[in-house]
Amino acid sequence: MTATGTAEHAGLLASAFRDAFRHHPAGVAVVTARDGAGGPVGLTASSVASVSLAPPALVVSVSHRSSAAAGLLAAGSFLVHLLEARNVDLARRFATPGADRFGPGTGWTPLTTGEPWFPEAPTALRCRPLARAAVGDATVVTAEVVGIRSSGRKGPPLLHHDRGFHVLGPVLPDPP
Q1: Cα–Cα–Cα angle for 87, 20, 139, nearest 5°?
Q2: What CATH number corresponds to the domain at position 31?
Q3: Of 106, 39, 108, nearest to 71 (Cα)?
Q4: 18 lies in some domain
Q5: Which keywords label this protein (predicted)?
C-alpha cells in the first residue's frame, strides 16, 4: 500500500477507511461533561478504548464536527457511560444533531463534581484528561479514570456496526 499524495487518492483512501471501520463493530458510549458556562454537553462515541491498568486510563476520540466538542475538550473532567443494548435510546439521543439531550424527562442528574450522569447506564467512568492530541478532524483525549459508578447490571452490550446499533449475539462454540 502506497500513498500517491493526490486529492483524488486521499478521497478514495478516506472512503475505503470509513468503509473498513463501518464493518468493524465497536462498543457504544455516551460521553458527558459540564462545559465552561456550567451547562451539560455530551455525545455518542464508538471510539473509546482502555489503554492502561496502572493508572486506569482510556482514550476517546472527539469529532470536531460535534456540537459538544468544544465543551468536552475544555472540561476538566468528564464521564464515559458504557452502554448496554437497553440503552439504545440514550445512544440515539446523543448521536442526533439538535436533539434535546438534557431536557426534562431525560433522566440525568449532576454528580457533586458537576458532570451529567445517566443512572440508566450500567457503568460510568469519571475521567480526568491527561493529554489531548489533534488528529485530522478529531481530538484524541487520553484520560485517567478517577472514579467508577456501576449498577452491577450486566446486560448485552450495545454495539455500533455498519451505521446502526446492534446487540452482541451468543458466543460461538469452540472448535472441536
Answers
A1: 65
A2: 2.30.110.10
A3: 39
A4: no
A5: Oxidoreductase
Q: What is the pLDDT of residue 8?
A: 61
CA distance 12 to 10: 5
Q: 39 and 68 in contact (C-beta within 8 Å)?
A: no
Amino acid at 37: A
Q: What pLDDT digit, counting tens, does each position of 124-144 carry?
A: 999 999 999 999 999 999 999
Terminal-residue alpha carbon distance, the chain: 37
- What is the structure's pLDDT at 2? 45
Helix/strand/coil for 88: helix
